Amino acid sequence: MDAAKYFPLIWAALWRKPLRTIFTILSLVVAFTLFGMLQGVNAGMTHLFELAADNRIIVNPRFFSNPMPIAYKQKIEEIPGVEMVAPVAYLNGYYQDPKNYFFISATDEAYFSINFELTATQQQISRLRNTPTGFIANSTFADRLGIKVGDIVPIKGNQTKADGSRDWSMELLAIIENTSFPDGQYSIGNYEYFNEERGDRRNTSQQYFVRIEDHADADKISQSIDDMFANSSVPTRSQSEQANVQAGFTNFFGDMNFFVNAIVGSVLVVLLLLTANTMIQSVQERTPELAVLKTLGFSDNQVMILVLAESAIQCLLGAVVGLALSVAFIPLLQGALQAPAPMFIVPPEVLAAGLAVALSVAFLSAIVPAKRAQKLEIVDAMAGR
Amino acid sequence: MNALKQIGSITLISLQSLPQRWGPALVVVVGMTAAVGIIVSVLSMAVGMTHSMDDYMRPDRVMVLRSNAQFEGQSSISREDAIKIADKPGIKIGGNGKPIASPEILVGISAKRRLDGLEKGLSIRAGTPDLLELRPEFNIIEGRMFHPGLHEVIAGRALRDHMQGIDLNAKVRLPDGEWTIVGIYGSGDGGDKGEWALFGDSETMLPTFNFTTFQSMTLMLESVDSFETFNAAVEADPTLDVSVQRETKYWGDWLEPQIAFYNIIAYWIGGIMILGALFGALNTMYAAVSTRIREIGTLRAMGFGPTPVVISIFIESLLLAGSGALVGLAIAWTSFNGITLVGRNFDLLITPGLAASGLGLALAVGVLGALFPAIRAARLPVATALQSR
Description:
A: alpha+beta, 6-stranded mixed barrel, two-stranded antiparallel ribbon, B: alpha+beta
């Protein structure tokens, strides 16, 4: 059967009642716009988990406001399977105006080897080490504050210095990027300097970043770290970054995933009902015409395929336009929610799934009327029975 | 025959033929069920969250933070400053003759959810032992108030209901040992943000967490209007580097972006779904007019005016859209009202107002969906209508 030959016939049947077809296709467009956007968000979340490294353990104090002694660094390093440990203490404050939130993650060189996504060169890292008041940041951070390389940035810190003042003056040494999270904000300085200068909470770290040899040991090593400090005055809570991101996500978005699936599910049910209804009406109205086709020599199967093809064209048309709109809309939604970029993508698999769903809806909604068309007796149909 | 009677009989005829047209009718009902159900469910998050803050933030309570701190974790207030702040004018005097002022620290511990064992952070707020004077919306529903100087805390009802290990007389492990939950308190009509915490005495708890200063201060004003008096006095003191905000401002700023998040989701998804429902309704009502075209022609020939025909179409559309909306509301209400989502410290809430807006939206779609088909039916020349097959 030469498909192209029959196309005008199917096309004409589709536009027999133009209003009905237009509204049906518009409903399909709407449904697939939603499908693309929501499945895109779902896929984006999964993508975020994949970006999180699983050979990285993050150690937090079990009681959140209680920083951990710096001596933990060496103790964690001694655990078998641990490659390196970097402490992180945070200098918070503002630049010029309290609205310009400023922070530095004060750490040491190991941080760059643990966070391999950072593009800092060896030269930049040693420059930072040799400049106590220096820091390096990514462009998102620097652009937000309007600072550039070479600037000495005066900071009003939340932390007081040992001399009682709150004025920190830090030099921006270089701009680096994080290849996994380009939209995040990164600003990295020297732990040693910050620790010497600060007035209180000296020799503590708010977090430890740990790199391990084998990601399969992540749970075991996390447990060893927590066990080691369980009975100290500052117990810890360790988790691989992946587990950490996942837990954070479940905590924040939790049932969002369920909501997304519920919405997509109910939209598809409505859609199925809608297109099935359109196809049933369409075949019912055309019963005499289908009988004419059979009289002209079309086989039963050919008539059935014509009906199925009509439904498929209608659904694919709606799906293609709808999915294209979802690709166009998703950056707008991302902008409205001010969400991180990787969360809002419509990956090719979602587009492919959308087309597959469209074909399934087409088939399911047209199979009953198509079977009816196939079984049609010419005599009955002509008589309008 | 008067107009009302005409409308009545035509509507009755059209509704009686509805079972023969159940397919298209079902499309409108189910489409509206989905659209209204989903919009109302998503908005119930925003409504629930706002409601959970109703009693927690009061215009006559103020929060004092270090001047550049955006939230409590960034702030610190020394003991000397706390005394100076409490002595400023405009603060209500409590039962013991002292100002109602609470120098506070907020610390986090983690516990597992009862539902699924998922680990979740929860907060301990330590402040004044005269907690019930500072927060009159709280009341002890089981046990008693904590005593300062002892390792005692009280726990919110929501926390007890949702978290493992939070019960009357249960022990909570803190860095300096075990603390006993000696009381359970409720807040407002339940589900309040205030119930999602443990409360203790800040003087007793400072050393527990190696704190040497407080983080923030919460004070009760003499009245809503005392804010200016108090704020001016604090600003005028050169030794104090702090900022004063009403609770409604501090928590309002915190709440706003989160409410905006839910609203954006609801309006985007809801807007798209309503559009879809509208196309469905238009489709159905056009189909209804075209299947009833001879019937309408006959009625017109018998002397029925165009207006009753138009109105009967509107009534049918409104009935279909309205019943779909009611089913959607019923599903949303039974599955979500009073439910606490994972990781969220509030219950979803479907208020009569929210339900009414859902229904209103559906009826608006019903009107729009009927408008063009009705105009078409009204304009139809009787002769053409009678000839069609």
